[in-house]
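User: ok so my PI wants both of these folded by tonight, can you help

Assistant: No problem, let's get them done. Here's the first:
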Amino acid sequence: MARRMNKSLYLADYVYEIEEDFGINGTPASWAPPTDGKPAHRFWDDEDEKIELHLFDGEQTSTSSIDKFATSHDGKLVAGSNGSIVSIFNIESRKHCMQFRGLTLPCAKLMFSPQLTESGGYTLVMVSSNRSQRDSITFFLELDESGHAIHEPAVIDFDGLLQRSLEPVLSELNDCFGVTSTSSLLEPLREGYSKALDNLSAGLESGHLTRVAGRPSSFSSSPFSTDGRLFLYIIQNESTQSGPRPPADLPKVIVYDVANNCQKYVLEGHEDAIMWTAFSPDSQHIATAAWDGTFRIFSASTGDCKHVIGPTGGQCWAGAWSPDSKYVVLCGMANQETRSETFVAVYSVETAQQVNRFRNDQLRHWVRQVVWSARGEIAMVHESNNVWVWEPFSNRTISSFKIKVDDFKERHAAVRDVQWVHGGDILVARAGDDTIEVWDRVKNIKWRVQRPNGTGRERDIVIYRWVEEGRTLRTFSCDGFMRAYSLS
């Protein structure tokens, strides 16, 4: 029987190796000069700064691995979750701010609003969801300028309450049946009561929060408008591939007014699961992609559907807006039956006409992330382990990158995400083993922050962030540390 590969098995003997490196006009990128004596090619243990975030001090080890992170737009706050608790740390003051225990379902996603509130504080979005994502609640937690909750609930000693509540029950059981407080027969009672009190506590802590019954979509969606006043979330988003549903039960996008705590519009028309939603940079339009083979462009001011692009012949997955909001790049499949024709194409928002289409013989699998730089170049992540940088209006492939890996490990080793930083001059790419490549496409130089061989999953990088001041790369890992690498 063939061994089933998972990430832990893959990391055990995986050696990171590049098959094709970033470069320009056939010239591969060279290593950048050393920074303060540090080489351009470094490993995780060679950071310039390491800060323990103290998000879950005192919690049991089994629940302290952090699998969700988010940083505020100004880089001052970081939120992390171990699934049941959300904790806030102030990076600037290096102080722990608070813990939030009001989630009744596991934490599935964290994100901050892109703008400060009117009082100068922050809005943290917490998505709580079960495994199937059918039951999802999105909470909006208001924080002050230092990272503390504006409305903190009264502290109740639930452990003491549990013990005091059980005392008359234990006394009666002892008198009638000789059952003592140490009897194993009482464990289900304690566990059930404790769980009920935990749910009560969570309900009390989250009771005052603004919430919506739904969740933002995936694949690098941009659910917030630029000013942070509007928010996109999806409802009824189960696939219809197993059978049709009435129009009222089909997937929908809700445009939510965060400033006034009310629903603004319902965006309808898609007939299968919605994968990607995003506001344009000027917040005038909303684009969506769905498995029904169509993309839609809506007016953000009226909620009206302006254009339907497709059907394409297969599932549609993701997209990205141009910096000037005049164009949108869309990714999907043009032949669902053979799954052999993937497309990446740029469309005019005004006319919905195709402007250009990316062509490459290796483009056979899904492209689930595209990012458009301020320079006008598009970086795309291809599921079969490629990254391409494309200039859509001249229709030129500027650069490409590929990790060397056998087919057995391809799914785990493939590049996971990319982002443009430093005004679009620098591209950051994260590989499947969490090695991070940084390429300056203007100077054609590179840096690498590499996972040490044999490192287990306890130090997986959950997110990374670029800090323009000092040109610093920050990584946030499952072990609860922020590591910083200066690349100036």
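One down. Here's the second:
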Amino acid sequence: MNKLNQTPLSVLNLAPVAHDDTMRDAMNKSTDLAQHTESLGYQRFWLAEHHNMDGIASAATSVLMNHVAEHTSSIRIGAGGIMLPNHAPLTIAEQFGTLGTLHPDRIDLGIGRAPGTDQLTARALRQSGGGAEQFPEMLNELINYFEADAPQRVEAYPGRGVNVPVWLLGSSSFSARLAGRLGRPFAFAAHFAPAQMMEALKVYHENFQPSAHLDEPYAMAAINVLAADTNEEAEYLATSLYQKFVNLMRNQSLRTQPPVETMEGIWHDREKMAVQEMLKYSYIGDAARIKQQLENFIETTKVNEVMISTEAYDHEATKRSFEITAALTHDQ
């Protein structure tokens, strides 16, 4: 039975841009956070691909990953994830083959099948090529580029034979089933799309087939955590996250806004309900509250690893949240 002090914790980061920051500021803060969470013992630091969003600075995910990897030494650096329909599989194999060559045994490649943006931007990225319906075929092509004993007419150099674990990411059972059948690790995006989490985890385990890469199922779930020294402070800081989700629904700027004393007058009742549903697995509070919530989550889901997204307007508050959460794993 997994417990909090036996469950690895990792970090999901979107290089969030505060409303008064530059893109460079956001990238520097992500790098600083990676260094900080590495010192705290977190397992992974993953960056996510999103496009045409002014509040996210990780669009060129592999480029930013390399920068972060250059400024850290032990924490695994990954993509959580690369949206494969936006790219030629060969291009991703070459990029991550390069990363895996420069930073041996430290690079993870999480793959998703959504565009990570609006359809107009997706078309601009893709120009022509595969859509989500061709995802299994594209994934198979990508994986083969990394295999040392799977020669093809076109090879990825660097890439072939480079150890880059491939994860499947998802917010439904589709990728869960595929990850199980391929014997690959699976990560569920419960930090913004919680509805199908339990079903997806069940499907993953039921369909898992051992592979050369994984003997047993390995599931991770991403959730939001905002820990502070008091419940009141945490709830105040969390209003920045609420504002971001409201602005997402309104198609407005996604730059992180300062916290507010109350959300009343900012969101409407329907928006409040929608945000609360999307943030179902968002744990906000002091150390005692967060510990209880994380223990319950791990007990309920039986996940092997928890990936944490923490986004406060103040960078030091974000770092403090990760400090408080990391300390919980040392409690008996």
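Residues 23-40 form the longest helix (18 residues). Residues 4-328 form a domain with the TIM Barrel fold (CATH 3.20.20.30). Good luck tonight!
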